[in-house]
Amino acid sequence: MKQSLSAREARRMALAAQGFGRRVPATPGTRQLNATLRRMHTLQIDSVNVYARSHYMPLFSRLGPYDTALLDRLLFARRAPYVEFWAHVAAFIPASDWQLFRFRMDDHRARFTAPGTWFAENMPIVEWVRAELGARGPLRPAEIEHDSRRGGRGPWWDWDGVKRALEYLWLIGEVAVAGRRGFERRYALAADVIPAAALGREIARPDAIRELVVRAAAAYGVATEADLDDYWRLRDRKAVKRATAELVEEGELVPVTVEGWDRGGKPLPAWAHRDAALPRRVDAATVLTPFDPMVWFRDRAQRMFGFDYRIEIYTPAPQRRYGYYSLPILLDDELVGRVDLKADRAGSRLLVQSAWWEDGPVRPDAAPRVAEVLRDAARWQGLDGISVANWGDATGALADVLGAPRHEAGPESIALAPDEPQTDEPDASSALEQGSDS
Q1: How far apart are alpha carbons 270 and 263 in whole angstroms?
Q2: Most buried residue, 32, 58, 113, 270, by most Cβ within 10 Å?
């Protein structure tokens, strides 16, 4: 293992750890999906559905067009090998890893069920919901009747007490998600979803954090302490520091310096996983979801790729710089631009709402390779054509290579139509985890 890495070597190491640049079959199957999920250890969930739901995207980015029904079976089938929990944030994890997050469930229990909280003051609803799941098995919130519904929905994220009770019970580990219908969760008692062997494991907090740190290191290839902490949103730098020191002593992690990774003029401490590969090159051409591990930690994306990234969903339309839901463009070991995609299902077209190159010289192979990515993106979603807007300095070259028609778009015109949902109804857990307990 090299003790000093150039910036490009660090990028190649990180991309290889995440499974980019690997040869895959023309038609990836379940084996390739499982292998990719094992490399990432977790798959973040987000409800935005402008082009494709975010949890489908990392597999497309690494494997190319694949049958999403295969992933659905892995994630949503009865007794599926994966289950949802608050891992990075709301995410899929192997069901066998459920108890690895018991310390987080315990933290949630202490936080959400203390005297004076909604949970403590609404125990009749909580107990009713728990009893309904025990008696009837997996249920959607709408299938659970309770007197609390007679008064209509409450003001809290437009969710009533039943939904809120389910989300709290999920976060404290008493309830698990037993799949989804459409994108609506079905809930069940954890014992009805998690394998008994996994549910019976006992993992002490220090051991769990240590295991999560080593998994983050393997998934990242090379990382700083902040990177290792953020992969699972541990928010416990002391515990991460302690785990990192133990893993260095045992040879799991190797201290390295990375060109350009510094703070205040001093090298930023970093570690490579002992099994991290350093390929001579990474051949990749794809787009990334905002919730891909390669870019989900914005500080790391800036440090590794010089890529200043934010999602502009909640930015007022006239103030958007790049678009509603712009996706980073990866070519080999560089992020060379960003493209805002929308699936026009009615017209069977992929709409390129905006496209931009990053600052600096544009690679001569960029437009042809990105155009091929867009063709794959359209084909994967079953769309017959591609139309390119006129907003962004990359749109002209892409339209020329694609031979695509143009359409009007700009920061004020690319938002979804009023009758088109931007996201599904939000999961209550998002607000619960943020601390909304008023």
Answers
A1: 12
A2: 58
